[in-house]
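PT: before anyone asks, these are the final sequences, not the draft ones from last week. 392 residues across everything. Please model them as a single complex and drop the result in this thread when it's through.
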Amino acid sequence: MQLDKLVHFHKALGDATRIRIIILLKNGPLHGLAIADRLGLRPPTITHHISKLRDTGMVYARREKNTIYFHLDERKLSFMASAIMRLGEVSEMTEKEFSLTEKEKQTIVNNFVAKDGKLKQIPSQLKKKLVILAYFVRNFEIGKVYDEKEVNEYIKSFHEDYATIRREWIMQQFMYRENNRYELNPVEMWPVTFNE
Amino acid sequence: MQLDKLVHFHKALGDATRIRIIILLKNGPLHGLAIADRLGLRPPTITHHISKLRDTGMVYARREKNTIYFHLDERKLSFMASAIMRLGEVSEMTEKEFSLTEKEKQTIVNNFVAKDGKLKQIPSQLKKKLVILAYFVRNFEIGKVYDEKEVNEYIKSFHEDYATIRREWIMQQFMYRENNRYELNPVEMWPVTFNE
DNA sequence: CAATTAATTAGATATACATCTAATTAGATG
DNA sequence: CATCTAATTAGATGTATATCTAATTAATTG
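LR: through. Structure below.
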């Protein structure tokens, strides 16, 4: 399910009147006037809410004579309600954010790092920035503690604006700082990993 | 869970930015500036959204130095997301709507039905109205088909405004009408049942 | 086809809320 | 205590939306 659909589903349930309609429909189909009467609201208000519920697919309509009965599709409701828990799964929208192939990452590096190994500029696009940060941070040793001067010196070897890079490493959780001493965070915390 | 809490939970998820925050936090805790940077938004905007998420309990905060890390409580998220499916269960909010003891129903009947068995007036409060409608509708036989005149005659035996009562029985699904012939709906469809 | 009933549309109103900038608070550190 | 950084608050702005009344459409039936 794509993000937009998920948002609309929860928007649909984010209203007391619509939840009450769901409750009514749990006990079986009902038509508009009956719903309006039970909730103490006017028919146009029910039309408004029902159409939002129908848009998500969790409610559908069946005509009988000139009365329209609204039914709750409990399976759909259940499926969509649980979607938020499945967010991390493959083929979910998460992947759009941060999954890059090694090839793509290499391309980004090639675009921003000169032949002499220096960083031409810090990418402004988040995804690219993270790749670059990951690329250069790998030269620290896991578990080793560095003082600020050491970190600065290393950064200067490939880019002049050491303050920004240092700050980004902390902010993006590649590194951890305590009492001005720096060390790598565990790789699991990195927003992007970089395997050569 | 009470209705209000459920509504607020879904309201909280009914926004693309907040869903994106959830996605980020699924990969581990993050602090405000990092979230702002990843989403391309300003810190106050993040404060705004995070506080809505915290209100529901699905996100909590832990301070480390002067950075505040926000954590996702997946168990709470999962519990609340599934609440909509449990709506019908006992001790849920449904019961507030329509569960009356036989005694309470009898009291309502006593208040609205005179000693001679006539309906004094149609209750305006929904709950009471349904009890009265159920009370009088029981005299029809299950499965038997009535024509409109028969229905009217029966209603007149206890109340003058037969049109209203007849219409309410249809609207509230105590009865079903087809080609001006009337019959009782199955008791499962009644919004209120009445056992003597 | 005229009358009835159910549902929807149109348009108005009032409230909620997502986002921003600017200013402020809170903690940590030199 | 002065400075830095992170987070929050305050206040403004524009958009979204819940509800209503009045008017209209759709289907059924005498």
